[in-house]
């Protein structure tokens, strides 16, 4: 199976250093995203739970406000939300469920202020039957309204695992981050998450094309006729014609994601990030961008039950652990994309409004 190959590949990497489901039908969700939103929305996902996605998302959000950004975090873990507790909102008056059920029309009214200035949160709700698996119409409505949020940066805190809803959220956001912890099992989960997301995208892009889907399904199977790498899948597409082969290559190229390693205790822990990138390149023909790592800090651990107080004055910890540095990288990406939009490099209208503040631009040089 794929994880056996991945595990052997990882062991091989470490040794060399020491010496020197069937494809789902993608939900019919909107594809067009406002160009300016491409520099605003980030989805934070990963494999199984326990890697610290929610804390990472929250701390990145708080760090971004210190760069002069207005941030909204969306608790998109519809089956196990917890951001309200982490931000001290024990009993939120409104939640994402109220919006998705049509009780509230304006999603801005669901965004609640946190103890951090310029940081708001849209709380999830996991106590409503069926909320963890919203229908196509519900997701489409939510995606359309997320684009209208008044914020410089929108962070989507996703649930663990690879449910269709989680994958849809991750693929909807133009910018993506996979969070993993420094264990081999976490690497396997992160790789599996990336692979499943890519397959979800390919299935969407070739929806209705039975010949193409048949080959894609062979990449997502354990049968003897399986295709075990994306490179071989591209080669198999050659028999379908140059046009479809080029479409497949373009679709794969469009799938981009960043990578963050959380809870790093030693320098060697960061090597797993490089290993994941190598494995993803070998088997998936993608190159996740290594955004950096977050150091383990007992101060943060001790503050989990009182995060609301901790967030008010945690500049030192955020800097020491690497959150501030990570936020600065996101700001630079936002700035770079904004400049592209202004110069028309994306091929879209030059009149797109860019919300970069003067002081942030000066800080970036």
Radius of gyration: 21 Å
Specify the structural class.
alpha/beta
Assembly state: single chain
SS elements, strand count:
8
Strand order of the largest sheet: 3-4-2-5-1-6-7-8
CATH top level assignment of the domain at 35-183 and 259-353: Alpha Beta
CATH superfamily of the domain at 35-183 and 259-353: P-loop containing nucleotide triphosphate hydrolases
Just name the CATH architecture of the domain at 35-183 and 259-353: 3-Layer(aba) Sandwich
- Which strand-content bin applies to the residues? 5-15%
> What share of residues is helical?
40-55%
pLDDT averaged residue by residue? 81
pLDDT < 50 runs, ≥5 residues: 13-35, 346-365
Cα separation of the termini? 49 Å
Q: What do we call the CATH topology of the domain at 35-183 and 259-353?
A: Rossmann fold
Molecular structure report:
Helix content is 47%, strand content 12%. With 365 residues, it is an alpha/beta fold. The protein has an eight-stranded mixed beta sheet with strand order 3-4-2-5-1-6-7-8, with helices on both faces. Helix 1 crosses helix 11 (271-284).
SSE diagram, text form:
Blueprint lengths: L1 H18 L21 E6 L6 H13 L5 E6 L6 H4 L9 H5 L10 E3 L5 E4 L13 H11 L6 E6 L5 H9 L2 E6 L3 H22 L4 H10 L10 H8 L4 H13 L3 E7 L6 H14 L4 E7 L2 H5 L4 H6 L2 H7 L1 H21 L14 H7 L1
Parallel strand pairs: 1-5, 1-6, 2-4, 2-5, 6-7, 7-8
Antiparallel strand pairs: 3-4
Helix pairs in contact: 1-11, 2-15, 6-7, 7-11, 8-9
């Amino acid at each position: 199976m794929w994880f056996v190959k991945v595990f052997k590949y990882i062991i091989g990497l470490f040794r060399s250093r020491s010496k020197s489901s069937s494809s789902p039908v993608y939900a019919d969700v909107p594809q067009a995203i406002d160009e300016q939103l491409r520099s605003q929305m980030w989805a934070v996902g990963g494999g199984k739970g326990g890697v610290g996605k929610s804390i990472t998302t929250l701390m990145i959000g708080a760090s971004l406000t210190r760069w002069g950004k207005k941030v909204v975090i969306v608790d998109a873990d519809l089956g196990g939300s917890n951001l309200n507790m982490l931000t001290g909102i024990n009993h939120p008056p409104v939640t994402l469920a109220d919006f998705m059920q049509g009780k509230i029309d304006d999603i801005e009214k669901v965004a609640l202020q946190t103890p951090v200035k310029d940081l708001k949160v849209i709380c999830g709700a996991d106590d409503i039957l069926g909320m963890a698996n919203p229908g196509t119409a519900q997701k489409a409505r939510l995606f359309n309204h997320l684009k209208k949020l008044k914020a410089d940066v929108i962070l989507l805190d996703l649930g663990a695992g690879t449910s269709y809803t989680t994958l849809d959220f991750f693929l909807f956001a133009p910018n993506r981050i996979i969070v993993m912890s420094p264990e081999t099992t976490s690497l396997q989960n992160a790789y599996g998450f990336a692979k499943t997301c890519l397959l979800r995208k390919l299935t969407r892009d070739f929806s209705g094309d039975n010949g193409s889907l048949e080959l894609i399904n062979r990449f997502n199977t354990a049968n003897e006729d399986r295709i075990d790498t994306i490179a071989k899948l591209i080669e198999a597409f050659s028999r379908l014609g140059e046009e479809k082969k080029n479409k497949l290559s373009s679709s794969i190229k469009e799938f981009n994601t960043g990578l963050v390693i959380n809870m790093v205790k030693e320098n060697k822990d960061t090597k797993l990030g490089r290993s994941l990138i190598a494995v993803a390149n070998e088997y998936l023909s993608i190159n996740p961008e290594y955004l950096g790592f977050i150091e383990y800090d007992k101060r943060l651990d001790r503050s989990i039950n009182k995060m609301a107080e901790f967030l008010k004055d945690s500049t030192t910890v955020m800097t020491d652990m690497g959150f501030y540095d990570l936020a600065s990288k996101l700001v630079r990406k936002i700035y770079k994309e904004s400049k592209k939009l202004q110069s028309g490099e994306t091929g879209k209208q030059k009149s797109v409004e860019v919300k970069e503040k003067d002081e942030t631009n000066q800080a970036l040089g």
